[in-house]
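Morning - zinc ion inputs below, output right after.
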Amino acid sequence: MLGNFTYCNPTKLYFGDKALDNLKTELAKYGKKVLLTYGGGSIKKTGLYDQIIAILNEAGKEIIELPGVMPNPTSDKLIEGADLARKHEVDFILAVGGGSVIDYAKAVSVSAWCNDNPWEKYFLRMEDVDNKIIPIGCILTMVGTGSEMNGGSVITNHEQKLKIGHVFGENVFPKFAILNPVLTYTIPQYQMIAGFYDIMSHILEQYFSGTDDNTSDYLMEGLLKSLIHSSRIAVKDPQNYEARSNIMWIATWALNTLVAKGKSTDWEVHMIGQAVGAYTDATHGMTLSAVSLPYYRHIMPYGLAKFKRYAVNVWDVNPDGKSDEQIAEEGLKRMEEYMREIGLVMSIKELGATEDMIEGIADATFILTGGYKTLSKPEIIDILKQSM
Ligand code: NZQ
Ligand code: ZN
């Protein structure tokens, strides 16, 4: 049964190989001073940077640059950006990059005029925004997080060994998002497949929860089938527009709040993955792939009916003559084969985790209650050991 909910997604999306043509019109809606934020330089190599600077100049904007946003943006970098945005009293933030840059832009947007320590206020204390918010827009170059159409912002504090996400409200969502699949062709293979698994994980985190009959579950099965199909094509042929454009759109729908409406969700894989990330600074999608199967095999007995449904509806397991456990296990086996086939990391050891980190990673893992089994610390340790 669907619970009560409000649905509103204010992000205007421009999709396709001509999507960038809309940037100038969108920019005209905001003031003169634009904070242009981006990552470690991929946009300069691809020529996108020059294109954007030309559009900003044509639009008569004053550009303040904020480069160097690292994958898994840090709380120190957040302070740098917030200070710069405040000093220049910027009217708008344009984020060009992947989830890290867009998440970062959201964090800067709520922190520039915040008189508190933003890491403590938003990420440790999870408080709402009660100060001026600078509007943001984004041009997506890396597919996976869904940050282009949601309020999520994940920040890492290396000193405290914590990686925490805050889901901000609609007023922090990007005002517009430009999604051109061609811009994703240059993503290195490792990042690309990490992004594919991030998408899969977002869907599974929302799917493996609840026992009710829920329209979202049917939508998610469709998204998963399309993702599995297109990702198999894209790993062999990264410039296949059909596959890359489908994946880009699936990523957005996987985490633009729609499929979570009216249903319970889990997110424990992300909690464990983020704790692994806090200790290793590994690529987000790979932290999820490394811990997923030990986690799902652990909780399967508690959510057997859903794991059986997953096996049959997503992985086309033939249920005839098999027990529910056998069907469910075969589904996870096919998932494992797929994960190995596309080249995902299946062990946290490969990401730099060592035995002596396990206790700390377990302590840094937030325990949520929406899944089929609320984990205890010894269970988290066990899952981490299985992923070594
Ligand atoms: O920094 P540059 O030089 O641009 O290189 C980036 C970066 O090294 C490169 N890249 C991006 N687009 C490229 C490209 N290289 C060549 N060509 C292109 N077109 O890819 C690398 C990774 O980028 P990053 O933005 O870090 O990847 P992703 O999009 O996976 O974002 C990861 C961050 O998002 C958070 C993660 O925790 C992590 O911090 N998440 C955000 C969520 C949200 N907002 O809802 C949800 C997710 O679950 C996730 O937690
Ligand atoms: Zn994710």
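Note: The chain is about 45% helix and 10% strand.

O.
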